[in-house]
Amino acid sequence: MPPTSSRDFQKVAAQRFIAAEVLLREGLTLDAQYIGGYTVECCLKALILERTPDSDQPKMLKELTKGAKMHKPEILLGMLKSHGVNLPLRLARRMRLFDWSTDLRYKTGRRDTGETRALLKTAKEIYAWVGGQLA
């Protein structure tokens, strides 16, 4: 069942993060980055939905879950900004270091382990920050 609330998106983000950690432990760095990127995406969507007025949430939920552009962090960050929310500067800087997109699903091979660990560390910190915003 697809997410219907900000809490649902956070639950999905938590599960994707755990899966990414397992993939990293198995040495599947590219796959860990691919799945780990969804942690960030779902966190940002959780916060967007949380900051959307109740009356507009059904429309926003439909928008967040439709179309390829809603996978792009820069689009989601722009939507957050329109709600008056900015990602902390240190996290925004770290996000710019990563080359994440859904196109990773078509790639094979491995990525740098240090880069993968850094991406997952950033995803974990974004998860924690968004969790604090939802509380």
Provide key terms for this protein:
single chain; 135 residues; Four Helix Bundle (Hemerythrin (Met), subunit A); 6 helices; 67% helix; globular
Describe the model.
The chain is mainly alpha-helical and 135 residues long. It has a single domain, classed as Four Helix Bundle (Hemerythrin (Met), subunit A) (Up-down Bundle), CATH 1.20.120. Helix content is 67%, strand content 0%. It contains 6 helices and no strands. The protein has helices at residues 6-25, 29-51, 57-64, 73-82, 89-95, 113-134. It is globular. 32% of the residues are buried. The mean pLDDT is 94.
Topology of this structure?
Layout: H1 6-25, H2 29-51, H3 57-64, H4 73-82, H5 89-95, H6 113-134
Helix pairs in contact: 1-2, 1-6, 2-3, 2-4, 2-6
The level 1 CATH classification is Mainly Alpha
Total number of β-strand segments?
0
CA gyration radius, whole angstroms: 14 Å
At CATH level 2, the architecture is Up-down Bundle
Task: State the end-to-end CA separation.
Answer: 24 Å
Main sheet makeup: none
Tally of domains: 1
The backbone outline, from C-alpha atoms, is: globular
Counting helices, strands and paired strands, the structural category is mainly alpha
Task: Please give the count of helices.
Answer: 6
Strand content: under 5%
Give me the CATH fold name.
Four Helix Bundle (Hemerythrin (Met), subunit A)
Q: What is the succession of H and E elements?
A: HHHHHH
> What is the mean predicted local confidence, pLDDT?
94
Helix content range: 55-70%
pLDDT < 50 stretches? none
